[in-house]
Prior knowledge:
Blueprint: H1 29-36
Amino acid sequence: xxxxxxxxxxxxxxxxxxxxIFPELNLTPTQIFQGAEL
Length: 38
C-alpha cells in the first residue's frame, strides 16, 4: 500500500505470490486455482 492505495501486481502461473502481511506464504496462482477445483 502506498499513499493509502493498494498496488496492483500481475502474477502468472508459477510466479511466487509475495505478501507483506504473510511473508512466509509460498503459493503460486496455479496452486490457488488448483485448490479452487476441489
